[in-house]
Amino acid sequence: MTLLDARETVTDEAIALAERHVAHNYSPLPVVAASAEGAWITDVDGRRYLDCLAAYSAVNFGHRNPEITAAAHAQLDTLTLVSRAFHADKLGPFCAALARLCGKDMVLPMNSGAEAVESGLKVARKWGADVKGVPPGRANIVVADNNFHGRTISIVSFSSDPAARDGFGPFTPGFRSVPFGDAAALDRAIDDDTVAVLLEPIQGEAGIVVPPDDYLPAARALCTQRNALLIVDEIQSGLARTGYTFACDHWGVVPDVYLLGKALGGGVVPLSAVVADSEVLGVLHPGEHGSTFGGNPLAAAIGTTVVAMLARGEFQARAAELGAQLHRRLAELVGAGVVALRGLGLWAGVDIDPALGTGKEISRRLATRGVLVKDTHGSTLRFAPPLVITAPEIDWATDQFARVLREAA
Ligand SMILES: Cc1ncc(COP(=O)(O)O)c(C=O)c1O
């Protein structure tokens, strides 16, 4: 057996074991990560890859960011979990800092992104009942076609993706979906029983779809006029990814409710949050909502560090500057295998000429060249590297992409 054969065996065995025992709800690329640092992942065979997915933006600050891991280590040696049955010293400072970052006054801490979305929906319904005065059972929430907000029953109830929905009914009622980017459709969908409009400012899983410039300002104005909450899901788009703290900032839009997750946990722990003013979050009273792990001391210590890093603005600046480079380099490939390019900051959706292969096939080829990306919806690839990526690394990744496209032609 050659050295190469032996190496292949380590990866193959790891994948075979996972295939047998891990539920098949994902179809990962054949790369088995063993360690990572900054923007680089090393696999079980010692091969290195430039990570251009950043765990769907959960690793915005880079793998094992030293500031974040220092906070995690210190907290691991102090206190990790008491539940919300008692106070813990890290939760107040975390919520105060996050509320300040958002320009709001209250935070509801949760864990996964889907939980933040579910919690936001519950808060909106409760606000509708208690504040707006919508009669019981009548509340509706307007969402956008091709949304992605997570995987719970209620969230997939308003998905337009058959793979997310089929076989999972019966569904939760009370949602209406209208085309993304169409303010007139939004206007028509809102009625007296509408308690909220829930939007991703830029649709991530749909392929990094940026709406027309007047869309989010129009959504903001409509929600204000019609007394409905504007809930913005910044779980993937937020926390510096697009060059601002929130994607909404590109259009100067301030929602009533921010939904945050992914990078809030620093790529270390699941940490999500609903952030709003007390007129909104104040509708929750003891016993009406909760989570055993939500806002635990470890997550709160990490979250406080993440918020402090965001308050400095350097990651937003990196995303803006390096994002311009990423988009410039990818734009050079339009007509050379790329048929469309979208996105903002260090976030790009790239549609590949379907004649060259599926997004999955191109991702596999890119992985063999040392670049990890993720396909979405057939022939779209997304590039969302950790924000610590450097300019030469962006050049190298886009060079590899150009080579793969040339080879596939
Ligand atoms: C916009 C958006 N909302 C919610 C979620 C769900 O987050 P989680 O996977 O942590 O439940 C995601 C995940 O990709 C997302 O992109």
Automatic annotation (TrEMBL):
<dbReference type="InterPro" id="IPR049704">
    <property type="entry name" value="Aminotrans_3_PPA_site"/>
</dbReference>
<dbReference type="GO" id="GO:0055129">
    <property type="term" value="P:L-proline biosynthetic process"/>
</dbReference>
<protein>
    <recommendedName>
        <fullName>ornithine aminotransferase</fullName>
        <ecNumber>2.6.1.13</ecNumber>
    </recommendedName>
</protein>
<dbReference type="GO" id="GO:0004587">
    <property type="term" value="F:ornithine aminotransferase activity"/>
</dbReference>
<comment type="similarity">
    <text>Belongs to the class-III pyridoxal-phosphate-dependent aminotransferase family.</text>
</comment>
<dbReference type="InterPro" id="IPR010164">
    <property type="entry name" value="Orn_aminotrans"/>
</dbReference>
<comment type="pathway">
    <text>Amino-acid biosynthesis; L-proline biosynthesis; L-glutamate 5-semialdehyde from L-ornithine: step 1/1.</text>
</comment>
<keyword id="KW-0028">Amino-acid biosynthesis</keyword>
<keyword id="KW-0032">Aminotransferase</keyword>
<dbReference type="InterPro" id="IPR015424">
    <property type="entry name" value="PyrdxlP-dep_Trfase"/>
</dbReference>
<keyword id="KW-0641">Proline biosynthesis</keyword>
<dbReference type="InterPro" id="IPR015422">
    <property type="entry name" value="PyrdxlP-dep_Trfase_small"/>
</dbReference>
<dbReference type="InterPro" id="IPR050103">
    <property type="entry name" value="Class-III_PLP-dep_AT"/>
</dbReference>
<keyword id="KW-0663">Pyridoxal phosphate</keyword>
<dbReference type="GO" id="GO:0042802">
    <property type="term" value="F:identical protein binding"/>
</dbReference>
<dbReference type="InterPro" id="IPR015421">
    <property type="entry name" value="PyrdxlP-dep_Trfase_major"/>
</dbReference>
<keyword id="KW-0808">Transferase</keyword>
<dbReference type="GO" id="GO:0030170">
    <property type="term" value="F:pyridoxal phosphate binding"/>
</dbReference>
<dbReference type="InterPro" id="IPR005814">
    <property type="entry name" value="Aminotrans_3"/>
</dbReference>
<dbReference type="Pfam" id="PF00202">
    <property type="entry name" value="Aminotran_3"/>
</dbReference>
